[in-house]
Specification:
The complex is a heterodimer. Helix content of chain A is about 40%, strand content about 20%. By secondary structure, chain A is α/β, with parallel strands linked by helices. In chain A, strand 6 and strand 7 form a beta hairpin. Chain A is globular, with a radius of gyration of 23 Å. In chain B, helix 10 runs parallel beside helix 13, helix 10 packs antiparallel against helix 15 and helix 10 packs across helix 17. By secondary structure, chain B is mostly helical. The chains are: A alpha/beta, B mainly alpha. At the A-B interface, helix 1, helix 2, strand 2 and helix 11 of A face helix 10 and strand 4 of B.
């Protein structure tokens, strides 16, 4: 029994070590968990409609994706990384240092972050300023805007008399989430900037004031799972939730988007740039792998085809906000010629 | 002291003893009661958990189909009748299905409405058509009645057995118009709910109605195969050496303490080790069961070693002495007598270790096995994922129909675990010997 098990084990090991050296036969994609639901749809279609293997896609987060992507050239490194923000110069430099010199940047569309509550309660109509005042740890003293105080607000009506007189309770993602990063940068900073006293602060101080959420139990970190937030909103009509637009789309019978600065989170308002809490989605391709790993060019072609990222494409059905016609054709051409990314 | 005094004091003692006895009995009764309450509470929780998983997961085992009359002319499919299989992939299957839907509901004319109509049929129907035509070329040019997979939203309202004639009472993302079409199809007998075979033969998918468990199941099987083939022989060999041959000195003490410590190391640490050593240094492929298996075997090794040593220790010394007395060499004592007697215990420990490995996700995160895998892995070097990871990925998906898939995947995982534990019990029953 022992002997045969040993034999089988060594045989399996030997065979796997010999095949491991061979080239990879499918595309490897890493990166943002926000792009993951869209990239996986394209990958699945690509696998089913071509003779290539279906690309495998890992959700490592944007930062983790860049780290893996920039770790070098060769089949043990990923070919593509997804990101819910643009590549930073520091990341680009680390790519260059490791020999990843030919990078193609593809802007694929936009994602909105919804602030929503149960469909059975009244819709909120507010701005990023109110969101900041409701959620930040330090806010300007209403009596003297120069002075920062611990957030005193307990009810929405204290911030703005037009808002309902209910306790502030907001469920949102924890700091590890990309959605949280984007929310803080877009909504909280947007609200912050409307106070001249804060805007004139030093960069570090400005960030500390605008990016710190309050910790007195009003903002509830509800975990990375957006489905959970939707379920909790259903059970608690007084709470607001913060989550990705695709979850709003999929649960439009249970939750409604709040009006932020005059617009609800919907398809058109995000595409036109009217809705303030939205972010661009990218992916980056290692052009040096084209030709070594089969199918990269075809995968790019599928991703940038009208039936995928077009206005009526299947990515739009999944909740991604497509680019405008002009921008689409611009990015499309750059992709088909594998235009090299230059960041400085 | 008079005898009267003695009597009085003895009766007082009896009283005291009696009182304390009552207290002791009461305490014992209370203790038993606590135990029963604790057990019934845990059983109640278990039932609650299982009940909620099963009731949520059961709908995932049925799949809704819609009957449509599809015209498969070469012209509409936009192909040459002699096309090769890979040329066939590019045929206009979606156009054919859309045409069939338009024929079924001829009065739908607005572009928006048409789109809503088409969304009732799953995109999987296109791949299904392709498979059917590849299997039977004579279908090209024919008009056939086909049962096509319905979209998850339609499937949800059909499976919930809601009253489709009252769209307001149904919680769904479908519009009243779409519910009306569903009602029309249902009244004509063109909607059918069948056993969901897809769930057991497909890999992952972003469409809930097409998502299946097989890729994860195969991934788990390959990973466990590697884990077993590596950890079992190594663990048993080290247990035998430590228990039967090793001298008692400081070195073996250090080894023993370290094995016990390793058993308590958080599993994510093994994932980091796997990333640094097996992927970055040995260049083994990312996301492959081979690396997952090696990492998990590192994790299960201490568990198996500790339980194997306990099993070896439980074999009475008289058996070793008798064998030696009859002239057996130390190796013969171990292989002929001690090991066969300890085997049931060793196997139980192994299976418990493997069951633990089956439920593990944390170490796999670092080595890329938390990934979207559609193709079913066929070897230990193919990209794969495992059952608990699949549960996690589905639980995190926005489409609501994945909720039932999540519970169904948990059920599959539990069945696997129960099977493994049943094997452990069976082996123990079969080989157990008493002395």
């Amino acid at each position: 029994m022992n002997k045969s098990a040993l034999l089988v084990g060594s045989a399996v090991l030997a065979s796997s070590f010999s095949t491991a050296v061979l080239a990879r036969d499918g595309i490897s994609v890493v990166g943002s968990s926000t792009v993951y639901p869209f990239a996986t749809v394209v990958a699945e279609r690509f696998g089913k409609t071509t003779d290539f293997n279906t690309p495998r896609i890992e959700a490592t987060g944007s930062g983790g994706g860049f780290k893996l992507f920039c770790s070098g050239i060769g089949v043990q490194t990923p070919d593509i990384t997804n990101a819910s923000r643009r590549m930073k110069t520091s990341e680009f430099d680390s790519c260059l240092a490791n020999g990843v010199t030919d990078i193609v940047e593809v802007l694929i569309g936009f994602d909105g972050i919804a602030v929503a509550n149960s469909i059975n309660s009244t819709q909120f109509d507010m701005g990023t300023k109110e969101l900041y005042l409701a959620l930040a740890k330090m806010v300007p003293n209403p009596a003297n805007e120069e002075e920062l105080i611990e957030n005193p607000y307990q009810q929405w009506s204290e911030i703005n008399p037009d808002l309902p007189a209910i306790d502030i309770e907001v469920l949102g993602p924890p700091p590890t989430s990309g959605t949280r990063d984007a929310f803080v940068e877009l909504a909280m900073e947007g609200g912050c900037e409307q106070f001249p006293a804060i805007k004139s602060l030093e960069k570090d101080e400005f960030k500390a004031v605008c990016h710190t959420m309050r910790e007195d139990g009003v903002y509830v970190e509800a975990g990375e799972n957006d489905n959970l937030i939707v379920q909790k909103l259903e059970a608690n009509p007084n709470a607001l939730g913060i989550f990705g637009f695709s979850f709003l789309e999929q649960n439009s019978d249970k939750v409604q988007s709040s009006i932020i600065d005059g617009f609800t989170a919907d398809f058109d308002s995000i595409a036109d740039g009217d809705y303030n809490i939205s972010r661009p989605l990218y992916f980056y391709v290692k052009a040096q792998h084209v030709g070594t790993v089969p199918g990269i060019e075809e995968y790019l072609a599928e991703f940038t085809s009208e039936q995928a990222w077009g206005e009526d494409g299947y990515l739009a059905d999944k909740g991604m906000i497509p680019l405008g016609d002009e921008q689409r054709s611009e990015v499309g051409t750059a992709v088909s010629t594998l235009e090299k990314l230059i960041l400085d | 002291m008079s005898s009267l005094d003695q009597k009085a004091s003895s009766s007082a003692t009896t009283e005291r003893v009696k009182a304390s006895l009552r207290k002791r009995y009461a305490a014992e009764k209370r203790f038993k009661l606590y135990g029963i309450v604790a057990i019934s509470a845990s059983i109640a929780f278990l039932f609650l958990l299982m009940g909620s998983i099963i009731s949520k997961g059961l709908p995932a085992f049925s799949q809704t189909y819609v009957n449509l009359n599809v015209s498969l002319s070469a012209e509409q499919l936009d192909i040459d009748p002699t096309a090769t299989d890979s040329e066939l992939r590019r045929a206009n299957f979606s156009g054919v299905i859309k045409q069939a839907m338009r024929d079924r509901f001829p009065d739908v004319s607005k572009r928006r409405d048409k789109k809503a109509l088409y969304s009732l049929i799953s995109t999987g129907a296109e791949y299904d058509l392709y498979d059917r035509i590849v299997a039977d070329r004579s279908l090209i040019g024919q008009n056939v009645n086909l049962w096509l997979i319905a979209d998850d939203e339609l499937s949800a309202i059909v499976k919930s057995k809601s009253d489709l004639s009252a769209p307001d009472s149904i919680v769904t993302r479908l519009t009243d118009q779409q519910v009306g079409w569903a009602k029309n199809l249902q009244d004509a007998g063109d909607v059918d709910v069948r056993f969901n075979r897809t769930f057991f033969v497909n890999g992952d998918s972003r469409e809930p109605e097409l998502a299946g468990i097989k890729a994860a199941l195969m991934g788990s099987a390959f990973t466990l195969l590697i884990t077993f083939t590596l950890s079992f022989p190594i663990a048993v060999a080290s247990a035998i050496y430590l228990e039967e041959f090793a001298p008692q000195n400081r070195w073996t003490d250090i080894v023993e303490v370290n094995i016990n410590n390793l058993a308590a190391v958080p599993s994510i640490v093994f994932g980091l080790l796997g990333l640094a050593v097996f992927i970055n240094f040995f260049h083994l492929p990312r996301s492959a069961p081979i690396v997952g298996g090696i990492v998990l075997s590192l994790m299960t090794l201490p568990t198996i070693i500790i339980s194997s040593r306990a099993a070896l220790k439980a074999v009475p010394p008289s058996i070793r002495e008798a064998a030696r007395g009859l002239g057996a060499s130390p190796l013969q004592v171990v292989t002929h007598h001690v090991l066969p007697l300890a085997m049931p215990g060793i196997l139980t420990g192994t299976i418990i270790g493997l069951a633990q490995a089956l439920g593990e996700t944390a170490p796999l995160l670092m080595i890329g096995m938390v990934a979207f895998i559609v193709d079913i892995p066929t070897s230990v070097t193919d990209a794969a994922t495992v059952l608990p990871v699949q549960v996690f990925l589905w639980a995190d998906s926005p489409e609501r129909a994945f909720l039932e898939k999540t519970s169904a995947a948990i059920m599959v995982l539990l069945v696997f675990l129960i099977l493994m534990n049943a094997i452990a019990v069976m082996l123990r029953k079969r080989f157990e010997r008493r002395w």
